[in-house]
Write a structure and sequence with these properties.
This protein has helices at about 10-20, 25-35, 95-105, 120-135, 155-165, 185-190, 210-220, 240-245, 250-270, and strands at about 50-60, 65-70, 80-85, 105-110, 145-155, 170-175, 195-200, 220-225. It has 9 helices and 8 strands. Helix 4 packs across helix 5. Helices cover about 35% and strands about 20% of the residues. It is globular. Helix 5 links the parallel strand 5 (about 145-155) and strand 6 (about 170-175).
């Protein structure tokens, strides 16, 4: 996915090759970049009031990154969900998820992944980030390390899956239309020891023609839901006009279905009875 318009033509061609787009789709993408024309009406974005947002910068062995932390209004240690963005995206493209989940009682952690397309390095960063929050003295009174989940969109779904395969203390992995690369995800999926939820859109060039099916097939006990009629960027929150131009128009209805399914899974796995009075937004 694309977060900036200042991309040269040769560099864009390389990007399109990485995304496995066919020639006709690539022509449309380059036309969109050149003209700046949007193909979809603007969608309403989720707005949360009284959200406590803290941005920090971390330096970990796998890389340095800015991280947004959404803190819930509770004095009790809260469950944590680390949420990862897609290829060529930034943490702000998952801010809607953070604003939603914090209102539901989670600590939502959304990092900028440090590597452009090195999914193994991004995976190591996510694993190190888990340890950073679990072991760091400053967070111990605010989070519950026994209730930790990972959720990732597209290539972020792949990186978070690789991390989940190396994180036996994790409680849950949620893949938001994840995209595999060179079978990395399928190989890691076979080693997963935690609950796994995979939510997919319709097959298209944007999700490598639905190659998450290989991940699902390799998972020991997958829970899979396909959102009928959804485009790839329905799982991103918020998306952008370029994302919609390339992948199709995102709708509130389809995004809401991703939201409902993911939130229910996180609630079932990470919430405890003492927090059952929290109001959930769907």
């Amino acid at each position: 996915m694309f977060s900036r318009l200042s991309i040269t033509a040769p560099r864009m061609k390389g990007i399109l090759k990485r995304l496995h787009l066919d020639r006709s789709t690539a022509v449309l993408v380059l036309a969109a970049i050149g003209t700046g024309l949007a193909s979809c009406a603007h969608n309403k974005q989720f707005v949360a009031k009284d959200v406590t947002l803290e941005t920090i910068h971390v330096q970990l062995p796998a890389g340095n990154a800015d991280i947004d932390i959404y803190w819930p209004d509770t004095d009790e240690p809260a469950p944590v969900v680390i949420i990862t963005h897609g290829f060529m995206r930034v943490r702000q493209n998952m801010a809607g998820w953070g604003k939603h989940l914090v209102k539901a009682g989670f600590v939502a952690v959304i990092p900028d992944l440090p590597a452009w397309s090195d999914h193994a390095r991004n995976s190591r960063f996510i694993t190190e980030l888990q340890a950073f929050f679990v072991d760091h003295e400053a967070w111990k009174q605010r989070i519950d390390p026994t209730r930790l989940g990972l959720m990732g969109f597209s290539a972020g779904g792949l990186s978070s899956l690789l991390s989940a395969a190396d994180s036996p203390n994790l409680a849950l992995w949620v893949g938001l239309d994840p995209v595999d690369v060179d079978g990395m995800g399928a190989r890691a999926a076979a080693m997963i020891q935690v609950r796994t939820i995979v939510l997919t859109a319709e097959p298209s060039a944007c999700n490598a023609h639905g190659n998450a099916r290989d991940i699902i097939a390799a998972l020991p006990n997958p829970e899979h839901s396909s959102v009928a009629g959804a485009v790839h960027v329905d799982a991103e929150w918020p998306t952008s006009w370029i994302g919609e131009f390339i992948c199709g128009c995102s709708t509130e209805e389809k995004r809401g279905e991703f939201n409902r399914l993911a939130t229910n899974a996180l609630r079932e796995t990470l919430m405890v009875p003492s927090m059952s009075g929290i109001q959930w937004e769907h």
